Amino acid sequence: MKVTYYGQSTIELVADGKKLLFDPFITPNELAKNIDVNSLKPDYILVSHGHGDHVADLVTIAKSSGAKVICIAEIADWLVKQGIENVHGMNIGGGFNFDFGRVKMVNAVHSSTLPDGSPGGNPAGFVIYSESKTIYFAGDTALTYDMKLLADENIEWAFLPIGDNYTMGADDAIKAAAFINCKNIIGVHYDSFPVIAIDKNEVKEKFLKAGLNLKLPAIGEALDL
Q: Where are the domains positioned within the chain?
């Protein structure tokens, strides 16, 4: 399984031969200016919630790639109005089997409004059960006891927000790793704006002291999980 980081919370995960793109926010992100959005051809796009820093390139990439968009029901309805019909609406606690594996939509504690002011339903995270590995993409969230429900899911890698202010910061992300019983963490949702800038060395040291394997890939960098 391979993952490529495109800044903020945007990742591309290759699971059992299918490309899954999460929360596409690239063109407005100055840190990702070297990434060509037109080169991204995912098979699926997974959207955690409706904020602009997670959906800025959603419609563009969905139209150019023909990818199926997996998201909460309200965002699915909104996408149809944008001319995107290849959508799969879900809701919290539900799961569905796709050709790359199973997706379960789980709780996230945040807010969700689409860029045009339309309601974005509830924010969410995703657990991906593929033949290769089980992955947790937390989305934008606070630390929540609901994460403890994932402790028995054998999650091998988790994408957790660490930028603070709008989401949990590094200290709460360390607690979240314990809640979900996962040692391998990839940090997301940091540095894109001044208010979520982090000291990478300090954060890495905190995770190391907690006995966790934290990865902070450069934008455009690919990792084998």
A: 2-224
Per the CB < 8 A criterion, the answer to whether 133 and 50 are in contact is: no
DSSP of 94-133, one letter per residue? -EEEETTEEEEEEE--S--B-TTS-B----EEEEEEESS-
Correct CATH for 2-224 of 3.10.310.10, 3.60.15.10, 3.10.180.10, 3.40.50.460: 3.60.15.10
E strand intervals along 111-221: 124-130, 134-137, 157-161, 184-188, 213-215
3-state helix, strand, coil in the chain (%, to 5): 25, 30, 45
pLDDT tens digits, one per residue of 96-143: 999 999 999 999 999 999 999 999 999 999 999 998 899 999 999 999
3-state secondary structure of 12: strand
Please choose, from the candidates 136, 202, 161, 164, the residue with its C-alpha nearest in 3D space to the C-alpha of residue 8.
Answer: 161
3-class state of residue 42 by DSSP? coil
* Half-sphere exposure of residue 40: CA atoms within 13 angstroms, side-chain side: 33
Pairing of strands 44-46, 101-107: unpaired
pLDDT band with cut points at 50, 70 and 90 for residue 167: very high
